[in-house]
Design brief:
The chain contains 13 helices and 15 strands. The strands form 4 sheets. Strands 2-8-7-6-5-3-4 form a 7-stranded mixed beta sheet, with helices on both faces. The chain is globular, with a radius of gyration of 21 Å. α3 runs antiparallel to α10, α5 packs parallel to α6 and α11 runs parallel beside α13. The longest helix is centred in the last third of the chain and has 27 residues. The termini are far apart. The chain folds into 2 domains: 136 residues, Aspartate Aminotransferase, domain 1 (Alpha-Beta Complex); 257 residues, Aspartate Aminotransferase, domain 2 (3-Layer(aba) Sandwich). It has 411 residues and is of the alpha/beta class. The chain binds D-malate. The site of D-malate has 6 residues, from loops.
Length: 411
Amino acid sequence: MVSINDNYLKLPESYLFSDIKKRVTAFKELHPDARVISLGIGDVTRPIASAVIDALHEAVNEMGHADTFRGYGPEQGYQFLQEKILIHDFHDRGVEIETDEIFISDGAKSDLGNIGDILSVDNKVAVTDPVYPVYVDTNVMGGRAGSLEQDGQHWNRLIYLPCTAENDFIPELPSERPDIIYLCYPNNPTGTTLSRSELKKWVDYALENESLILFDAAYEAFIHDENIPHSIYEIEGAKETAIEFRSFSKTAGFTGLRCGYTIVPKELKLYNSSAEKVNANKLWNRRQTTKFNGVSYIVQRAAEAIYSPIGQTQIRASIEYYMRNARLLKTALQNRGLQIYGGDNAPYIWVKTPNGLSSWKFFDRLLHECHIVGTPGIGFGPSGEGYLRLTAFGRYEDTVESISRIQNWNL
Ligand code: MLT
């Protein structure tokens, strides 16, 4: 008899976005003529920048010639890409990182899930609430979340750090010490941010309590306010206490191409069961070299092209395109008297549901009455109840059309 990892059986039947997809498909079957606009999953709609496409073509051609063909690449990623990341994402911001601290991967979601491989099952985990479901679900799979409480919302071994309008979406430091703390800023799903001084509080807390911060910076490219840090390593001491995850998905439209990277600093303080310090960078390297054969050469060449001057201009134009959607959506919803958060330094708008409607009820009304798909806040955790997320990643025309439907909506 072969036993499975029973933790998987504790999970809700499907992942949030698969669940929403099912509901939308059912709606479309019943209403085949409805033109449904998706402002649900944060998937990009702009085509890949031409500088990136050119680099892809060139790399594809190289693969077709005996003298430029490449087989397995380094599992950690090619140096040509690591060096660009080092200079543009870190050195230019005054952050000292070394190339062997950068691990190129197929995206932040994979690394955020896989990082649990090198961390003990006994660690106590804290998550901000609402939260990107991957952090919670992968800890359920890994056996760190305990079991689901009666309310069907809280896992009994997780520490929840509520972020709601009442605390301005700024999580309070935990009263019970966690070993691992997930932070995502700019935040998915609320679209809110942490100032430098707020983030410093977390780094100081983690240093003092010997906790590990898993910092998801997938949306850093959407920051334009200078007081908001792009990397946790802009805060002194963070290299001893944090791993940072980055993604090209939203920054450069790579949701389909797949590429991101993770920084595991050599100074990071992690310990074995005898309380001896271990080299986390080496550990992650060991994990990656065993379980991962690296991102394809052509995709890494594509990612490298993002950092060229023309590549930068082109990806900035797409980011501006999405942020214009965010501004338009935000203003239109506010004009309808709704309470809106986020959307200034992030591509997500967090809407307070009107008249005390539940997240799912508001989701259903938006879908049935406006033919617009959002994401119910409760899907991101208990403190998401009473909210709904809209993404700014839609096409401009669809965003404008959504706005006109919302303006004429009998709310
Ligand atoms: C989201 O909608 O939250 C994101 O698209 C999910 C992801 O990046 O995996």
